[in-house]
């Protein structure tokens, strides 16, 4: 696949690996370096055209590979170029393979559900003009070495008949494990507990879980006094030898102590005598023609014969 810009200068190596950032690879020393924005735009153009060609070859309604999809997902694409084909000295692109880790629920041989996160083949395309020349195996083998994974440990998203034949021819992958989704896995996928698959984070042991901090635990150890009047419950020095039997009736209330301390009658009267009279009471006494209370007491104590003198 040819482009109007220099592909050979854009991708110095035969196979280039790109992630979601789509950063241009380092260029060879001595070559002119265009603006970085122009280089990234060229990479985006290559990805869009490769995605369209792959969708057309697989009879898909829309491309599943594009620059925008790459930037929004944590996928990796391997691009294979042809350095020998130099139309006007610009090179050409042979094909690509896109991979990425996905969390899947797959069935094993016993039809048990397993939650795994294996490396998945998401898109694979070799240009029609250079197929059956070993380019597909070269690119696929390079990806396996880079990702450190075996062919039977992969999950393939909606593989085409050509891809299934390719895997059977070069890697003896023939027997598949039936699934209820669009992914295809082969016999041996569950062997060795999937070393390349990303394992889900292990659950923390119950002993390591701390529901509250150490300061909270110290606070819970301190006895908190209940509010009044709950704190006025009677305290007995020694329990009685024979406590009275308690009734089992639900209507009986528990025994409660006095809400306020008992004050003797003499002390209460003494406090009332010492209490100063209210100003209003003084005005009333001043306006009373009968005089003060002391005078009324003296008057009432005299005999009636002497009262008539006044």
Automatic annotation (TrEMBL):
Quote the PROSITE patterns the UniProt record gives: GNAT_ATAT
What PANTHER family does UniProt report for this protein, alphabetically? ALPHA-TUBULIN N-ACETYLTRANSFERASE 1
- Positions of the UniProt region annotated as Disordered: 229-263, 282-310
- Major place of residence: cytoplasm
Q: What class of enzyme is it?
A: transferase
| Residue positions binding acetyl-CoA | 124-137, 160-169
Its lineage reads:
Eukaryota, Metazoa, Chordata, Craniata, Vertebrata
Question: Where exactly is the site Crucial for catalytic activity?
Answer: 58
* Name assigned to this protein: Alpha-tubulin N-acetyltransferase 1
Q: How is it modified after translation?
A: Autoacetylation strongly increases tubulin acetylation.
Similarity field: Belongs to the acetyltransferase ATAT1 family.
């Amino acid at each position: 696949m040819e482009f109007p810009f220099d592909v050979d200068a854009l991708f110095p190596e035969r196979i280039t690996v790109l992630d979601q950032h789509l950063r241009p690879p380092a260029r060879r020393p001595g070559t002119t370096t265009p603006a970085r924005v122009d280089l990234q735009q060229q990479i985006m153009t290559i990805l869009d055209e490769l995605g369209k060609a792959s969708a057309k070859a697989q009879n898909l309604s829309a491309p599943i590979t594009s620059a925008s999809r790459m930037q929004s997902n944590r996928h990796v694409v391997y691009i294979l170029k042809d350095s020998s084909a130099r139309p006007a000295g610009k090179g050409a692109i042979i094909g690509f393979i896109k991979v990425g880790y996905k969390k899947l629920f797959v069935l094993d041989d016993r039809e048990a559900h397993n939650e795994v996160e294996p490396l998945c083949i998401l898109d694979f395309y070799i240009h029609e003009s250079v197929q059956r020349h070993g380019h597909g195996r070269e690119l696929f083998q390079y990806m396996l070495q880079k990702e450190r994974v075996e062919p039977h440990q992969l999950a393939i998203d909606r593989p085409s008949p050509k891809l299934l034949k390719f895997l059977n021819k070069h890697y003896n992958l023939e027997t598949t494990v039936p699934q209820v989704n669009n992914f295809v896995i082969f016999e041996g996928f569950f062997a060795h507990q999937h070393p390349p698959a990303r394992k889900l984070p292990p659950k923390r042991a119950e002993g390591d879980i701390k529901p509250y901090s150490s300061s909270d635990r110290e606070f819970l150890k301190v006895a908190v006094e209940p509010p009044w009047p709950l704190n006025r419950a009677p305290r007995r020095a020694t329990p009685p030898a024979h406590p009275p039997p308690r009734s089992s009736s639900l209507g009986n209330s528990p025994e409660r102590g006095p809400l306020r301390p008992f004050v003797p009658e003499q002390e209460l009267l003494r406090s009332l005598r010492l209490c100063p009279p209210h100003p209003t009471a003084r005005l009333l006494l001043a306006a009373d023609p009968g005089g003060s209370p002391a005078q009324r007491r003296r008057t009432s104590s005299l005999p009636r014969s002497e009262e008539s003198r006044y």
